[in-house]
């Protein structure tokens, strides 16, 4: 009888130990899972970008497609001169407009201003809102960028403006065969190499609003620059060409 009691006590001890080890294992597994989740949800950090690095990206027709560059200065400062493919989202209204760049949360977003202070503040806002690859670049007062005065817009904004009738003239800077396949209503086809021979198609009023697009935003930026040199003051270039955005034609 005593032997049986000892046997039962030993078995109970084994069961208790097994349960304890199982619980311990589960706790360790839970801790490991929590650590992994915490690591995955760790807040991204704003990275600094030198002016020469940003200038190099903007000059590379392929590389620039991987970045969204945002000028957070006022619209007045932006219009006086800004980096070629930069859109304007002033710091004062940035959070109200932020939803339009939600699709860039996992893409490279570069911010700049005059000194890096305002762009740094906006960079922190983006990180807090889930953007994972945010860069604060040298300001226009710290680095001598090649600046332009025509406006740059994302595809959706460009498309909406045209459909809302804001463009006096739309220029399609793609190849003739692409132009013939489909384009905006009443758009004309002018590529950079043909600009001089097509000046007669441009409006006489230099205040006319002219919208330009192409396949990737590169050729249209060349035409936009030519238009500004001709004295046109309201020129808009689509940084999203028909390759990046579906304009519906």
UniProtKB/TrEMBL annotation:
Question: CDD domains in the record, alphabetically?
Answer: RHOD
Keyword presence, Signal = yes
Question: What keywords are annotated for this sequence in UniProt?
Answer: Signal
Q: Which InterPro entries match?
A: GlpE_sulfurtransferase, Rhodanese-like_dom, Rhodanese-like_dom_sf
UniProt key word Magnesium:
no
Limits of the Rhodanese domain: 63-149, 164-247
Q: Name one Pfam family in it.
A: Rhodanese
Which stretch is the leader sequence? 1-23
Q: What is this protein called?
A: Rhodanese
Q: Which organism is it from?
A: Peptostreptococcus russellii
């Amino acid at each position: 009888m005593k032997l049986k009691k000892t046997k039962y006590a030993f078995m109970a001890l084994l069961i208790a130990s097994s349960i304890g080890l199982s619980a311990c294992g589960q706790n360790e597994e839970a801790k490991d899972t929590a650590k992994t989740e915490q690591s995955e949800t760790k807040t991204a950090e704003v990275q600094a970008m030198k002016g020469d690095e940003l200038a190099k990206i903007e000059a590379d027709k392929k590389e620039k497609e991987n970045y969204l560059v945002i000028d957070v200065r006022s619209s007045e400062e932006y219009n006086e001169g800004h980096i070629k493919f930069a859109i304007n989202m002033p710091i004062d209204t940035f959070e109200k407009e932020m939803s339009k760049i939600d699709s860039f949360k996992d893409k490279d977003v570069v911010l700049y201003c005059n000194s890096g202070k305002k762009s740094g503040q906006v960079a922190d806002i983006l990180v807090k809102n889930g953007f994972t690859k945010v860069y604060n670049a040298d300001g226009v007062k710290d680095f001598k960028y090649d600046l332009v005065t025509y406006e740059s817009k994302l595809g959706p904004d460009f498309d909406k403006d045209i459909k809302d009738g804001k463009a006096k003239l739309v220029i399609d800077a793609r190849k003739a065969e692409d132009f013939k396949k489909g384009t905006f209503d009443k758009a004309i086809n002018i590529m950079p190499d043909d600009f001089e021979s097509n000046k007669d198609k441009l409006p006489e009023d230099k205040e006319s609003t002219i919208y330009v697009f192409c396949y990737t935003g590169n050729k249209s930026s060349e035409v936009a620059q030519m238009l500004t040199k001709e004295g046109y003051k309201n020129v808009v270039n689509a940084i999203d060409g028909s390759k990046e955005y579906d304009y519906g034609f």
